[in-house]
Amino acid sequence: MSNIQEFDLIIIGSGSGNSIINEEWDGKKVAIIDGGTFGGTCLNFGCIPTKQYVYPATVATEATHIGRLGVEAEVTHVDWKSMRDRIFKRIDAISHGGLDYRKSLDNVTVFEEYAKFTGTHELETASGKKLRGKQIVIAAGSHNQLPQVPGIDHPAVHTSDTVMRIDELPQRVVVVGGGFIAAEFAHVFNGLGSTVVQANRSETLLRSYDQEIVERFKREAAKQWDLRLNYALASIESNDDGSARVVFEHDGKKVSIDTDLVLIATGRTPNSESLNAASFFDLRDSGGIEVDRFHRVLSGGKPVDGVFALGDISSNYLLKHVANAETRTVQHNLVHPDSLRETDERFVPAAVFTYPQIATVGLTEDEARTKATEEGFEIAVKVQNFGDVAYGWAMEDQVGLCKVIARKDTGELLGAHLVGEESSMLIQPLIQAMSFGLTAHEMARGQFWIHPALTEVVENALLGLELEK
Ligand SMILES: Cc1cc2nc3c(=O)[nH]c(=O)nc-3n(C[C@H](O)[C@H](O)[C@H](O)COP(=O)(O)OP(=O)(O)OC[C@H]3O[C@@H](n4cnc5c(N)ncnc54)[C@H](O)[C@@H]3O)c2cc1C
Ligand SMILES: NC(=O)c1ccc[n+]([C@@H]2O[C@H](COP(=O)([O-])OP(=O)(O)OC[C@H]3O[C@@H](n4cnc5c(N)ncnc54)[C@H](O)[C@@H]3O)[C@@H](O)[C@H]2O)c1
């Protein structure tokens, strides 16, 4: 007798993967496997708790920066422990509730352990259970990647997985990296009162972002915390008092910084290795699992029957809104093999919840210029300062800018990039226009813009584009 447990569907990963299970699966046998915390990265270690720290950090930062408005304020106390407990009371309850609910369903079996592939449709869990699925969804996410330098296992070293659960707000924090996670945590710790050094290996922060936006962010970040560029992490040593000494190479010399906490934010890697995915499926250069446009996993360049992947493990974007959209596509494709869908990833936006906020969609100015040269059209670019619209006057804003890029001949929007107050929200009408094919002037003149809301910065940017029609 075979000791393999058979399922109609096996899902690996309880982040986005958990949302696959809908009423279509009511009469069928489903397994969901997760060796980590139920609910995945976004809920437990990512988007959601980070923003719960970002919000108070932003309020505190703004409170101490309104002297220009004639109001002097100071933050006298930050209760990190109660903030942490409030945040994780909510999150842990959602995670536990989600797990209990799945366990309560007759058709679903939850395996709370890691698993690896032993065949294209077969898995073995860490405790040796063997599972076979007619269909499989790989939604196993990504993990923080640590530079292998001496002392990386020092107790003061954290990643985004652990840093939000520490007991005390550290006095001194060194953030290593120049991406999303580094930018958000530098703001969190700075806003809540730690002394922050952010050290990045290269000159470039937030690579792949529009240069003008990055330069504005760098200028503003350097006013708030100690920003060190071209600092390559060399080692982490112990001081006698238990604190860490972080050693960087800079300009051919060694530079040491003493700190209470080191946050490593040097990128994330798809979890393909622990799945033994390379033995059965094609991998991309990034280490992610290769899929076709219907999210079918490839092996030797061909789709493997009934095996799909979504989210960080296979996506071009490590973003939850992308993982969610891919989940909806895979949910459909699992049960409609004759009418497979694609995920529309033409205009994927992103926001960095640092201070000031940053938001982006579409091509950067450099990318748009390259495309224009290659395809023989001209572009129009307009940069509108927040400080030049009425609400920006109210704010006495000297930071925010909204850049829009369009084709001169058709008015088609190619990209939009913002830095400044609530950029993550201000960008949404531009994402909408691009997604639904509204031209710049149609969008500007085809609707009312509430006066004198900050959204007038978007309206004015669009109107300022010098277009042929
Ligand atoms: C600090 C931080 C902040 C972020 N903030 C944002 C944000 O503001 N906005 C945004 O859009 N995105 C944000 N992201 C990215 C976002 O969290 C991810 O893109 C998203 O959570 C990916 O979802 P997923 O379903 O692909 O994977 P996950 O949610 O990571 O789920 C994968 C699950 O698979 C499990 N697993 C892995 N390997 C195995 C195995 N072999 N066997 C069994 N189980 C396994 C893991 O334990 C995990 O629970 C952030 C990420 C981080 C780290
Ligand atoms: N608001 C959001 O949407 C949000 C927030 C956080 C994370 N995320 C997602 O999570 C992903 C991972 O974030 P991240 O910030 O870790 O990665 P990232 O790829 O954005 O940035 C990694 C940074 O680390 C630097 N780096 C790499 N190796 C290094 C080394 N050895 N020494 C020093 N620096 C080194 C890189 O130059 C880069 O600046 C992002 O791609 C993003 O999609 C999204």
Record the SSE blueprint.
Elements: E1 4-12, E2 30-33, H1 40-44, H2 47-63, H3 80-104, E3 108-111, E4 115-119, E5 122-125, E6 130-138, E7 142-144, E8 157-158, H4 160-163, E9 172-176, H5 180-192, E10 195-200, H6 211-224, E11 226-229, E12 232-238, E13 244-250, E14 253-259, E15 261-264, E16 268-270, E17 296-299, E18 302-309, H7 320-335, E19 350-352, E20 358-362, H8 365-375, E21 379-385, H9 390-395, E22 401-407, E23 413-419, H10 423-426, H11 428-436, H12 440-445, H13 456-463
Parallel strand pairs: 1-2, 1-6, 2-3, 6-18, 8-15, 9-10, 9-15, 10-11
Antiparallel strand pairs: 4-5, 5-6, 7-16, 12-13, 13-14, 17-18, 19-20, 20-23, 21-22, 22-23
Helix pairs in contact: 2-3, 2-5
Bound molecules: flavin-adenine dinucleotide (FAD) and nicotinamide-adenine-dinucleotide.
Describe the fold and architecture.
29% of the residues lie in helices and 26% in strands. The model has no long low-confidence stretch (mean pLDDT 97). Helix 2 runs antiparallel to helix 3 (80-104) and helix 2 crosses helix 5 (180-192). Strands 1, 2, 3, 4, 5, 6, 17 and 18 form an eight-stranded mixed beta sheet that branches. Strands 8-15-9-10-11 form a five-stranded parallel beta sheet. It has helices at residues 40-44, 47-63, 80-104, 160-163, 180-192, 211-224, 320-335, 365-375, 390-395, 423-426, 428-436, 440-445, 456-463, and strands at 4-12, 30-33, 108-111, 115-119, 122-125, 130-138, 142-144, 157-158, 172-176, 195-200, 226-229, 232-238, 244-250, 253-259, 261-264, 268-270, 296-299, 302-309, 350-352, 358-362, 379-385, 401-407, 413-419. It has 469 residues and is α/β, with parallel strands linked by helices. The longest helix has 25 residues, at 80-104. It starts with a strand and ends in a 6-residue tail after the last helix. Bound molecules: flavin-adenine dinucleotide and nicotinamide-adenine-dinucleotide.
